[in-house]
Amino acid sequence: METTIPAPLATALHDSTMVAHERAETATFITRLMGGEGTADGLVALLRQSLPVYEALEEACRGIGADPRIEPILDPLLDRTETLRADLQTHEQAGRSCDIVVPAVEDYVAELQACEGNAAALIGHHYVRYLGDLSGGQIIRTMVRRHYGLEDGLTFYEFNIDKPKVYKDNYRSALNALPLSDEDRREALDAATRAFELNHRIFLDLEAAGIR
């Protein structure tokens, strides 16, 4: 019987999350913000929701130690917590702030805290957040600058990485080389899908809260 060779992990992550990814990126809140029909306050609200998510993710990644199943993709250059705090402070000084943390964020944080010590699940969350920031995040930065005249308070979307495309290619290669069992691989794929679903729920909650 012919043995089916599984797709490289980076390919599997992309393909298995395609539906959840599309659902998230076409949510009304984010399409309105990207299309210039939102406000700068909407961006600030989005950054405010992101802060506890990255705090939880980066805490979990620091706690995983040198586990070879995830260590090769961990890189302090990707950390976003401090840039988020700085951006929110910049916006607050300009009179823009958000005190709301929507329920989906609380669920997202709980999900990440439950993944502490679980390298396989953290791979999926790491992939969704940081590869997304290096890709779609750059588009968000461009569009909010264009539509809302913002120049400051966007360091969340800026990375100290000279060649982002090369970095992303190397990241995918590192993903593909991770020493994962079949169960680890399934956990990583499932976690990535949950991450996109939670992102989608954040957008829905912001829309329901009337934030533009």
Automatic annotation (TrEMBL):
Which superkingdom heads the taxonomic lineage of this protein's source? Bacteria
Keywords of the record: Heme, Iron, Metal-binding
- Keyword Disulfide bond on entry: no
List the InterPro entries: Haem_Oase, Haem_Oase-like, Haem_Oase-like_multi-hlx
Q: Which Pfam families match?
A: Heme_oxygenase (PF01126)
Spell out the Gene3D superfamilies in the cross-references: Heme oxygenase-like (1.20.910.10)
Q: Return the protein name.
A: Heme oxygenase (Biliverdin-producing)
Source organism per entry reads Dietzia aerolata
Q: What is the lineage of its organism?
A: Bacteria, Bacillati, Actinomycetota, Actinomycetes, Mycobacteriales
